[in-house]
Design a protein that fits this description.
This protein is of the alpha/beta class and 503 residues long. The protein contains 14 helices and 19 strands. The protein is 28% helix and 15% strand. The strands form five sheets. An eight-stranded mixed beta sheet has the order 5-4-6-1-7-10-2-11, sandwiched between helices. The chain has a four-stranded antiparallel beta sheet with strand order 13-14-15-19, covered by helices on one side. A three-stranded antiparallel beta sheet has the order 16-18-17, with no helix packed on it. A hairpin with a 3-residue loop joins strand 14 (367-370) and strand 15 (374-378). The termini are far apart.
């Protein structure tokens, strides 16, 4: 038995043809849908990047206890469990956060890994004297400067990181398709911003453009930089072109599946960590609060050679935490008791539900729950917003958020059963360092909490434009939220912060 996971970053579900997208060229996603089960109610759990990846390893929520961080010693890592059981595991990626502070030790869980350099702020190539070209938004910090330095060394398409990542992945398939018992994860940073796309893809959406360069939307309200309508269209077209680029490279994997007849014995999963707001709800970005469906409701495709179900849509609710147990179950490896996700094999086969409700969110912000039709978003109570802690074994997180001062205030706690009898450090938390009282900040009180608690009926209002008032539904969703928080051993302060009664 074999398995391949192709993971993209920041991939919007509603843009893809299998989910009704009509303004994008993505024939290979449509081709994929004909080969597998398409999940219509798949949700992220923990946001953004590294929290989602930890969920893929551990099969349990990350965001109730901490934000961005590494794999911990007590974690049940799916690739490592496969490796220990005799399944060869290999990672190819250009996701540079694996090598950044706070994102460590994920790649070591595989038998082997390859890393393609260059996207975003990957500290790769060096130029002592360099001035980034003018552009809308973009980052003016070292990360932004580094992106434009790296581009000097990737002028040809074969040199850009997506081409290198898929080249490495295809090499693994070519070298090992005759062998058995392996797991390959092809993890691609695109279509994550900034959008660095070869002209052959961009030309499909835009022939001429005379405005300011706009390939790196930051996490702001639309109009923050006084973009013109033409410039906004250009920015969205850049994203569309990046998705079409991803689609083209996905097609190369599907070609290998066909060429080597891997469909008969190889599970194929295609997924993402989260979506991205492209002016919906008047925002650019992926970590806006609250987390609307454009961010949290993600595409998911699964081919299971055991059931051979293809060309169908499945409506049962599933999440990122279900990926690890699905792969362990497929290879016949026991699922650890601390993995709270569920295998999806039977869901693919019969659409049998694996859960009634799903939690999702980002550490320190709204906690959200959905049953697939309704989404209930619970906002933190302003007077308790600072009552937040990070629980970690390895004291590192998003750069510059774990400080010496915080370590001086830390204490050891033995509050959680899933740490296998080991203590955790409890440190003062601050939502990746993003909460601010600066009135210009995205995370100022009015920007973050002004919306308050929200309830949406996705059946009547799929774009989440009009919150509803329904006391009975809200009470049911709130009860489900509390129950799931208890099952996941949410810290006591989470209930206080959300104004919920602790069970």
């Amino acid at each position: 038995m074999k398995a391949i996971v192709v993971m993209f970053d920041s991939l919007n579900r509603v843009m893809l043809p299998p989910y009704g997208g009509v303004d994008i060229i993505a024939p290979n996603f449509q081709r994929l849908a004909q080969h597998c089960a398409v999940f219509d109610n798949f949700y992220a759990g923990s946001l953004p990047c590294m929290p989602a990846r930890r969920e893929m390893h551990t099969g349990r929520y990350n965001f109730l206890h901490r934000g961005w961080g590494p794999i911990e010693l007590y974690d049940d890592s799916m690739p490592e469990l496969l490796k220990k059981s005799g399944v060869y595991t290999h990672l190819v990626t250009d996701h540079w956060h694996y090598w950044e502070q706070g994102g460590s030790d994920y790649q070591t869980k595989y038998n082997s890994f390859e890393y393609a350099r260059g996207p975003e702020g990957d500290p790769w190539k060096a130029r002592v004297d360099f001035e980034a070209p003018p552009h809308i938004y973009g980052r003016v910090d070292a990360c932004g400067r580094q992106e434009y330095i790296n581009r000097l060394y990737t002028q040809k398409e074969e040199d850009i990181s997506i081409a290198q990542t898929f080249k490495h992945g295809l090499e693994f398939i070519d070298d090992n398709f005759r062998s058995d018992n392996w797991y390959l994860q092809i993890e691609e940073f695109d279509p994550h911003e900034p959008y660095y796309v070869p002209e052959r893809f961009m030309a499909l959406y835009e022939k001429e453009y005379g405005g300011r360069e706009f390939d790196w939307p930051q996490y702001h309200r639309v109009g923050h930089e006084q973009e013109t309508e033409e410039e906004i269209r250009h920015g969205i077209n850049k994203y569309r072109a990046a998705v079409t680029m991803c689609d083209w490279y996905l097609g190369l994997v599907l070609d290998r599946m066909d060429e080597y007849d891997l469909w008969k014995d190889t599970m194929l999963i295609v997924n993402t960590d989260h979506g991205f707001l492209l002016t919906e709800h008047n925002w650019w970005g992926k970590i806006m609060e609250p987390h609307y469906d454009e961010i949290a409701h993600t595409p998911f495709f699964l081919w299971d050679p055991r059931s051979k179900v293809q060309g169908v849509h499945r409506g049962a609710l599933a999440q990122t935490i279900d990926i690890a147990p699905t792969l362990l179950d497929y290879f016949g490896v026991p699922i650890p008791k601390d993995m709270l996700g569920k295998p999806l094999g039977e869901l693919v086969k019969t659409d049998a539900p694996v859960r009634e409700y799903a939690l999702f969110g980002m550490h320190g912000f709204h906690v959200n729950v959905t049953d697939g039709r309704y989404v209930y978003m619970r906002a933190p109570v302003r007077e308790h917003v600072d009552q937040l802690y990070d629980y970690m074994q390895t004291p590192t997180s998003y750069p510059n958020t774990v400080t010496l001062d915080k370590l001086r205030q830390s204490e050891l706690v033995w509050d959680f059963s899933f740490t296998k009898g080991t203590p955790l450090l409890r440190l003062p938390g601050n939502c990746m360092g993003m909460i601010s009282d600066d009135p210009k900040s995205l995370y100022a009180p009015d920007g973050l909490y002004g919306e308050g608690d929200l309830l949406f009926d996705l059946e009547a209002d799929p774009r989440q434009l009009s919150p509803i008032q329904d006391e009975a539904v809200e009470a049911r969703m709130k009860a489900a939220m509390i129950r799931l928080m208890k099952e996941n051993e949410a810290p006591a302060e989470q209930y206080t912060r959300l104004g919920l009664e602790q069970p």
